[in-house]
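Record pair follows.
FIRST:
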Amino acid sequence: MKPYAIMISVPFQRHANPFVHVTIKLASKSFAITFVHIEYAHHRISKSHNNTSCSNEFDVFSEARDSGLDIRYTTIANGFPLEFDRVQNLNEYWESILHEFPSHVDEFIGNLIESSDPSLLSFLVADPLYPWSSTIAKKYKLVNVAFWTGPAVLLAIS
């Protein structure tokens, strides 16, 4: 039985890119991974890739899966419609990420556990900017792993 992790990054490119790399690295070490992206971030990435390809939905892990890695990619809503201007309303958006988004994550993990063997799921890997990840991990008896995506010096001075 291989270890199984859920990966959830903050929906900004500076955070998501390192999560993508760690996801592929863990999968290459025989982990099963579900990478969870916020619907809006996925929509923006797909939209930017549609300008250069004929694909409607971009999946960053399609080549990794083709090579045999066990990576699932899914999206969950964060409570705002796609048209909501997250840049203009950054404070409201970030408050939602911190206080409302956790219920979406909780529901997603609960459904994932219900639909599969709960003993398979082992880890919740989340950005430490999410203060709620340890609470959700504890609820589902998962190991909570904080993956810091910034420079080490920022972690040292915080």
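SECOND:
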Amino acid sequence: MRSEKDKMLAGELYRAEGPEIEADMARAAAWMDRFNATVAHSAADCHALLSELFAEVGQGTRIRPPFHCDYGSNIRLGAGVFLNFGCVILDVVAVTIGDRTQVGPKVQILTADHPRDPETRRTGLEFGRPVRIGADVWIGGGAIILPGITVGDGALIGAGAVVTRDVPAGATVAGNPARIIGKA
């Protein structure tokens, strides 16, 4: 029998409970307590802290606290990635952010999703869909990236945009829902 964590990581319906999931969430919560305790991390300290929790952290990557995530272990950040204050990443499945991508304050990157059918939702089941953000992307403050989205290299996402569809490489999107308004 597969564990709830195995189902979660496979993007299947799962329950966010059980010893593996609860231990991983507790580990991430303890890490966030330490990471968010100060904004005065040196570059080396920041990289070391991120490397403790995340699946991958490229050289020169920085996150300004406070930062929140579900697990951290499903997050891969390329080299030179920057996340500003107050970012949230719900990483029940993979979140990949490419080299030199800049993320504004209070951006939300969400992989957690829920069944559309109310009967199934009532059972407490959920699932995840991975988010992939390319290299050299700029995401404006307060933007929300919904589950299953891919953002191409060099794209720009306007402040406050709600990204409900994939964003092609080099596109500029804005609005709710985000629409292409030009090329980067």
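COMMENT: The first strand starts at residue 56 and ends at 57.
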